[in-house]
Amino acid sequence: MDLKGKTALITGAAAGIGAASAHCFAKHGAKLCLVDINSDGAHVVEELNQAGHEAVFVQGDVANEQDCEAMIAACENHFGSLNVLFNNAGIMDAADGDSQACDENVWDRTMNINVKGVFFGCKYGIPALRRAGGGSIINTASFVALLGAATPQLAYTASKGAVLAMSRELAVIHAREGIRVNALCPGPLRTELLMSFLDTEAKRQRRLVHVPMGRFGLAEEMAQAACFLASDASSYLTGSTFTVDGGITAAYVTPE
Length: 256
Ligand code: NAD
What we know:
It is built from eight helices and seven strands, in the order E-H-E-H-E-H-E-H-E-H-E-H-H-H-E. The chain is α/β, with parallel strands linked by helices.
């Protein structure tokens, strides 16, 4: 996978999949504009720059339209172009639940970050990709866009279904402009987002029963997949539901 000569913007880059992808993209030659609501993203940029890579940090909230416009402008101003847009930032609210337990404010916050954040990223990112002559958009959905769970997280699940459907339509709309759009659907991962939701060993083991590989995925394994989707190695791939999930969506009964 070769990202030399490409500039990539990654949201949610202070931790988890975003931070691992920043390291992976940089290793393959990309210049990086890293965005996060959390100022910790600046540390990821420091690590990359110390290792001889080119990266800048933009603090911003993907649910805020002005912040999304500003992050794309910052990337183009600093590097001259945008070639890869990785709309990855997302939340799973601890107060999410079933239709009775999930409050309107949890629903709205989840939708604003997980769905509207991707929309705003595309709204401002697509004109920049056009100016660069095309590019790759990767939107992080989830395996829960494909499977229902009895441990409810209704707002989160609905938000990821929306990201998956939106990604497909974006792919069709922009295919002839050389802009590819794919939805990365991670399985359950050992990152802060899921581990703080599955906050006991019993809850974690309960989830692992459904994963044929019998373990949580790693942020680095999602980064490899994102790097493939970002690079020209995936040049004929668009509109895909790109599941990287330890086999969870393939399973009916898992091994003992
Ligand atoms: P994480 O919590 O480790 O990292 C998410 C990052 O997004 C954090 O740095 C956080 O500060 C940032 N962020 C949150 N809200 C933001 C906002 N409004 N604006 C900008 N940045 C914001 O999570 P992760 O596991 O790396 O998740 C990344 C993506 O993968 C999310 O979209 C998540 O829904 C999805 N996902 C995760 C799993 C999993 O099991 N962890 C599974 C499937 C999908």
